[in-house]
Known about the structure:
Elements: H1 2-24, H2 28-41, H3 46-73, H4 76-94, H5 104-130, H6 134-147, H7 154-175, H8 179-192, H9 199-210, E1 212-216, E2 220-221, H10 228-241, E3 248-251, H11 253-263, H12 272-281, E4 286-299, E5 303-318, E6 324-354, E7 360-378, E8 386-388, H13 399-409, H14 418-444
Parallel strand pairs: 1-3, 1-4, 2-4
Antiparallel strand pairs: 4-6, 5-6, 5-8, 6-7
Helix pairs in contact: 1-2, 1-3, 2-3, 3-4, 4-5, 5-6, 6-7, 7-8, 7-9, 8-9, 10-14
Amino acid sequence: MVTMSLGSCNGARAYVKKAQKMEEAGMMDQAAVHYMTALRKKPDNIDALVGLKRTGQIVLARHLADFDEAVLKGEREDAISAFEDADDYNNLVASLNVTLAFPEAKRALFNSVKNAHVEEIYVEGSEHLEFLKYAEALALFERIEELVPGFKDAAALADYSFCKPAYELGNSAMEDGKYRTAYEAYNDVVERDATFEDAGDRRQEALDTGRYTIALMKFENGSNRRNVHTKVSAYIEQNLMGSSDPFLTVVDRESIDLILQEQELELSGLTSGAELEIGSLLGAKAILKGTVVDCSHSHTALRSDNRRGYEKYRVEAINSEGKKYWETKYRPVNFTEYSQSCEVHMSFNLKLVSMETGTILRSETITASISDQTHYVRYNGDKRHIYPSRSNGAVDSSISGHNALVQLIGARRDLKNDNVMVDESSKNLASKVQLVVESILREVVQ
Length: 446
């Protein structure tokens, strides 16, 4: 704690010296910034407090001079901006326990300028609204709300200026059959003003009309791994049902199996025409077919390498004055370094078939790979005293070298189980399939 305190003092003094040099050079803004930094390091530094009061007052005066100049020119927006800069600067300095002289007359003048400006741009915004210039009107009414919250009906007019063009965009998109565009436009309206006309009902209508239902057919397994297609199917169904795309609806496996039972059909061996018939019965606009083309697991042989290291020990010695002391020495030791890796590679072919035309909307092969590595050291001695050797054979007595070697001694020695890796790879594959399906859906439902 004493060391930290001294460091803060030294740091504060250094910034004070920099600030004083800049002040001598007439660089008041930069000097004030350095005095502020000094106070953040040591809030009770007298030189920094006095220096900031002196230079801060000059900087504040410049901001207020900009305000006065803008007022004289009749540039009200610039005047307001200049005053806000001055006020923000005054508050910043005050947060460091330095009080600057801020004339109240300036604040009264600011309020007068602000109120006159608000009255003026309210009229201007109303004129924009009359001529259906919604973007221009919105900017002005929102600026009014920033300057004088609750001024007349500016907030309501701002909402109207935002909602009206978005609502009209939604109506136009609905007429053109662009249900996603319509939904997003109506949604913007509802989030801004839930009571605006019938935007809520129209948003639901756009969603209901454009909703795209996909039925998952039973996947095929073209790999050598048993039942992997079932795992992949489950993860894909889970991902698609959890999609954030509001237009995507997935018919779950239970519903499909129920329809098959009612129709006394088996999904395996069905012709494409029968699949389309089932999709139609499910109310689906498309069916998703898939085949696990490959699921392979491979691993390298366990590699081992004998390494030379050093063990630290201490011996008692006597110096030239006859006094005993402990001397650190290192003796060579051997340890074995091991490494091994494995990988699971999967490929999956999906086909999304339109129920309306029977055409394939997308046929794509997706791949996913998961790898794992082990890298560890076996050492029969006391790991607390072991150190690695450098490339030239000399001992590496650094703490980092010792810690790295100790970490390898305690590192994981077994590769992940291949079933675990297949499961991880299946999840990865399902996420990629979800992205592809969502991409297709954005093309189909615009």
